[in-house]
């Protein structure tokens, strides 16, 4: 595209790309508009991007479906600051000729490091013991030793692969499950692919790193949680709806799991009455796995790279990865 275009960030809340040096690279390409708050309703969302050729979706809380695209004939590109594309109806975008570009692999080291940290926090009961000390209580609970234990990874994309590397670094045995296993992928990751049933039944830590899809929605429900060891830890750095939250709360409250580390919620921000917040042996973070300065800079740059590539006539159609 040679003519200047309108590029809109429709709801940068919490702040992701506002004030980023990456946006300066778009200054000569067209008009850049950044909304620092989320739209209050669907009409406001559409009004913000009605004249845009490019939407830079910095937050997945702002969703895009067929009904939206039907009102936006000028939109040609959706560039997102994430790997996950569950905020976008990809088929509807494809049918209307809208390119969707995400960032496979860009945030892998940041997300994996965060989930690795949550694993330790749960195993050592950091939240429980901190709360007790602040309350004047001196607990001596039995914590979990991680070295030499089995780490089961569900989803072996870039993040799952990095989680496997970190697990091996401290001497954990790593096994994995994915929808499409292959000997080559197993060798490259240094893991053994096993059945989902075996992974759940034998792993001391089960770590979720697969994208949300019709296949993965509700993948971990009551039956799957019942297969896990009562001493096991569940980590969710994927999407909340991969897990049946009610079943997880029940398992935690009944002592059928040691604990859980969670970075994703079905509703974000999480409502105060979300029952997972009342569970004792959980460590929770507000979808913050890639919220380090390094990660924010990397994802912002990648989103702008995707826009520039599109404007230069070389669109990166990578949303299906």
Question: What's the structural blueprint in terms of helices and strands?
Answer:
Elements: E1 5-9, H1 21-24, E2 30-34, H2 42-49, E3 54-57, H3 66-69, E4 77-80, H4 90-95, E5 99-101, H5 108-123, H6 126-134, E6 150-154, H7 158-169, E7 173-177, H8 183-189, E8 192-193, H9 196-202, E9 205-208, H10 222-227, E10 233-236, H11 245-253, E11 259-262, E12 282-284, H12 293-311
Parallel strand pairs: 1-2, 1-3, 3-4, 4-5, 6-7, 6-9, 7-8, 9-10, 10-11, 11-12
Helix pairs in contact: 5-7
Description:
The protein is α/β, with parallel strands linked by helices and 321 residues long. The chain has two domains: 5-104 and 293-311, NAD(P)-binding Rossmann-like Domain (Rossmann fold, 3-Layer(aba) Sandwich); 108-284, NAD(P)-binding Rossmann-like Domain (Rossmann fold, 3-Layer(aba) Sandwich), CATH 3.40.50. The protein is built from twelve helices and twelve strands. It has a seven-stranded parallel β-sheet, with helices on both faces. The chain has a five-stranded parallel β-sheet with strand order 2-1-3-4-5. Helix 5 (108-123) crosses helix 7 (158-169). The mean pLDDT is 94.
